[in-house]
Amino acid sequence: MLIDVLHHTPDPGLLLREALRVSRRWLILKDHLVRGPCAGLRLRFMDYVANARHGVALPYHYLSTREWNELRHALDLQIATEVKQLGLYPWPLDYIFGANLHFLALLKRGAPAQRQ
């Protein structure tokens, strides 16, 4: 389970590969997508306000939908279930800070390759 973690690393793919190494089949992932007007700025603002005072690394490495899909494909992950409207904040804050910037997914690893 990786909850709001991948965007705090300079190489989300490396961390995701490590999570998959210790997972048998499933991975729960909640993170962010750069999608929509000023999405990167809104995500940076939220990340800074929530994490800077705690000394959390802030590389602001948010991926676009295309980048997430490419990473999933490269790691042979299928989406079993995905939620894009999480309703994390009360209205009207959810309109600004929710706004399709978050997703929650249950990912399923592909079948292991058959050895010959």
Walk me through the structure.
The protein has 116 residues and is an alpha+beta fold. The chain has a single domain (2-109), classed as 3-Layer(aba) Sandwich (Rossmann fold), CATH 3.40.50.150. The chain is built from 4 helices and 4 strands. It has helices at 12-22, 39-51, 65-74, 93-98; strands at 2-3, 26-32, 77-83, 102-109. The protein has a 4-stranded mixed β-sheet, covered by helices on one side. The longest helix has 13 residues, at 39-51. The model has no long low-confidence stretch (mean pLDDT 91).
Briefly, what is this?
The protein is an alpha+beta fold. The chain is built from four helices and four strands. The chain has a four-stranded mixed β-sheet, with helices on one face.
Secondary structure layout plus pairing:
Layout: E1 2-3, H1 12-22, E2 26-32, H2 39-51, H3 65-74, E3 77-83, H4 93-98, E4 102-109
Parallel strand pairs: 1-2
Antiparallel strand pairs: 2-4, 3-4
Report the average pLDDT across residues.
91
**Largest beta sheet, briefly?**
4 strands, mixed
- The largest sheet has its strands arranged as 1-2-4-3
How much of the sequence lies in strands comes to: 15-25%
Q: Could you state the order of secondary-structure elements as H and E?
A: EHEHHEHE
DSSP helix count?
4
What would you report as the Rg, rounded to the nearest angstrom?
15 Å
Output the CATH homologous superfamily. Vaccinia Virus protein VP39
CATH architecture: 3-Layer(aba) Sandwich
CATH class, anyone? Alpha Beta
Q: End-to-end distance, in Å?
A: 32 Å
- Spatial shape: globular
Structural class: alpha+beta
Total strand segments: 4
CATH names the topology as Rossmann fold
